[in-house]
Each structure stands twice: as C-alpha cells, then as structure tokens.
Amino acid sequence: MSMTGTYRYIPEKPSLWFTMAWSGGLGAIIGFLTAQGDTSLMIPYLLTGGVIFTVLSAICAQYVQSRWAARLLCMGILFAAGTYVFALGYGVAMLLLGYVLGSISLWLSSGRYRLAMPPYATSGDILWFYSFRGLCALVFLFLIGPIIIVIPLSFNVVPYFSFTSGMLSLDPAAFSLRWYMDILTNGIKDPTATLGWWADVWQNAQWIRSMRNSFFIGTLATLLATSIGTLAAIGLSREEMPYRRAIMAILISPMIVPLVITASGLFFFFSKIDLANTYLGLIMAHAVLGTPFVIITVTATLVGFDNSLTRASANMGAGPLRTFFKVQMPLILPGVISGGLFAFITSFDEVVVVLQLAGVKQRTIPRQMFSGIREQISPTILAVATVLVVISIMLLTTVELLRRRSERMRGLSPG
User: What is the pTM of this model?
Assistant: First the structure.
C-alpha cells in the first residue's frame, strides 16, 4: 500500500517463471491446434509453440518495458515465422497472437492481473476468476466460430466449401465476388443483357424474389405482432385484469410449443379457410410467432412505468387514446421497437412454418437456402448467409441501443 492522498493497491510482481509458464501454456495450445489432428505432428508442434512463446515472454518481461514495444516484437517474430513455415494467412493469424502475447507478458510480469480482484484475494480466487471468464470466452468462440468461418468462405473463387491454399496464402486471385453476383443473376436466362436488367433481376432472380418476400412478409407480420403484443402487454400489466397468468401463458405459448406442432396446427387450420399458400396466411402465422416477443419486451418495459402519469393525464381531461399516444407510448417506445425487431428477426429467419404453409410464390430466403442445400450445393448460400449475418448484427445493435436508452429514460442507468 502507498498513501498519496488516497489508498492505492500496488500488487507484488510474480516470479519470471510464473509469466513463462502461462505464456508457454498458451503457445502449447496454439501448437496443438496447428497440428490439426495429425498425431505425428502433435507433440513436435506442441513443444515448439510452447518454447517459442516462453522465450518471447521471458524477453518481454525482462528486457522490454514498453507495452507497444513488446507487442511489436512478438508480432514481428511470430508473423515472420508463421509466413515462412506455413502461409501468409497463418502469418496474419500469428500477427494477432503476437499482439496478445506481448500484452499478456507485461500484464503477468507486472502483477497487474491482480488489480481486478481485492487485495485479500487468494491465488485460488484469482485462478477461478480468470478460469471462469476464459471458459465463457471459449463457449462464445464455439458459438460464434461457424459464423466467422462462413464469411471468408463466401469470397472463395472456386465452388468449394473449404479454404484453398490460395486463400490461406491471401492470394488476391483466390478471392472473388462471384457468389454475391450470383445472388442477382440466379434464375435469369440472360444475365448479360443490359436493357431492363434491373427489372429482370427484381422479377426473376430467385434469391432476390426470396429476399423481397422475406422483407414483405416480415414487415407486415412485425406491424401486426407489434400492435397486438403492445395492446396485450398493456392490458396484462393492469392489476385489475382477471386471469392474467393464464392469459399470459396462452399468448406466449408459441415460444414454448415445438415449432413443428405449431406449424402443423396452422397448416390444418389455414387449409380449411383457404389461407394456406397465400401471403396473408404466412403473415398471420409469422405474427403469431412474433407476438410473444413483443409481449415480453413491452411487459418488461412497463414494470418501471409510473401509473400516476396516466391518472394525471385523465384528471386533466385526456381520453384513453390521447393518454396512450401522448403519455404511455413515448415512455415504452424503446420496448415496443425492441419487441418489433425481435418479431422481425423471428419472421425473417423462420423456415418450418414456411415449409408447410408457403407455395412457390411465397418462398422466403430461409426456404430458398433449404432448397439450395438439398438440390444444389453452391457457395451462393454462404454469400446469402453473410448478408443475413450483417442484417442480424445491425438489428441486434439497434436492440441494444434501444435497451440502453430505455434504461436511461427509466433512471436505471446514468445518462
């Protein structure tokens, strides 16, 4: 401890062997993964990775004081080694690992890793603290890994679902936008024609038609689900509402019941009223699936709502509709928009109901992808999947921004 106006905890520096052991362990893991399951190379790569990372960590801890100098040293050596032994793509990966190695070498050797814990924390507490977070990071990487792999594969110049040697060496000739262009030209008889080409794309390109259907059905289903879900949430939030729990269970049942059962029930019901194989039927079905998300998000927003505001509005002569649009809606709007976005994502990604209710004209993007996987394996599916990933990221980012805005408006977080 030192006193310079305030207490400041200065951790004790660990031994050099501590830093070398953890850095060497990281290098051993990287070497093990580099072997790619080849048992004859597993042990040599594991030892080589451990030795290289241990030596670099010791150099950084003993002789390098600047964090950026340590990063640049490790990045340069690992990039050169990875590019020389394997390929440029592996060298770029090692470049990133060099940045990490240079950072953690000084982080460990200076003892700063203890600053995240109280001064009285034991070594076991610190080990569990970082082990738990490391496990969470591995789970996150396991979940996000398939999405990360799909994106570079969508730029492959050859029709394969694997990384070619040219892609690993970052050869520009190995990358192409041909599969993204195929989204526009798939289904067109003469894609080289210039007269009316965009009109032909809009009407006849299979992927564009599917995308158009997805946005059309998703938008109308979202509007319907948001309207119904918002009104239902407001009604269920009132204390005098009878059988609230039973009604809530019924309204959110589409989230609980297996989707195959829901789709089959909708198919038999819509077939009797001539709504199967129609846009209206799909819109209504997707609205049923999206309404529970709106109800849950709006209900969560109404938990902190001050009902005295509505009573004050009524005392001042405002009717129910004016009170709703002028008082309630501005305060619960972030929750309404968040629920609508979740409803749109549900409709946009749904395929089971579309398989049972949609005809040829109502084919959506997930349905088109399902048909492409069964009938014709093409990397165009990877390009479409990349576009969907980008759209999903944008929508989820919007949801998170709205959530934070809602918390600020309700005083749950600082502005």
Answer: 0.71
Residues 230 and 297: beta-carbon distance below 8 Å: no
Is 252 among the domain residues?
yes
Tell me the chain's radius of gyration from C-alpha atoms.
29
Q: Are residues 274 and 401 in the same domain?
A: yes
Whole-number Å distance between alpha carbons of 11 and 2: 11
Amino acid sitting at position 359: G
Verify that 228 and 332 share a domain, yes or no.
yes
pLDDT in tens, 99-111: 999 999 999 988 8
User: 8 has which bridge partners?
Assistant: 2
Asked if residue 135 belongs to a domain, the reply is no
CATH code of the domain in which 310 resides: 1.10.3720.10
Domain of 30, in residue numbers: 2-121
For residue range 349-377, list pLDDT tens digits in order: 888 999 888 888 888 888 888 877 776 67
3-state secondary structure (DSSP) of residue 319: coil
Q: What are phi and psi of 156, to 5 degrees?
A: -70, 135
- Total domains in the chain come to 2
Contacts of 54 (CB under 8 A, 6+ apart): 20, 23, 24, 27
Average of per-residue pLDDT across 237-255? 85
pLDDT of residue 57 exceeding 60: yes
78 and 219 in a single domain? The answer is no
- Please give the structure tokens belonging to residue 380: 């165009």
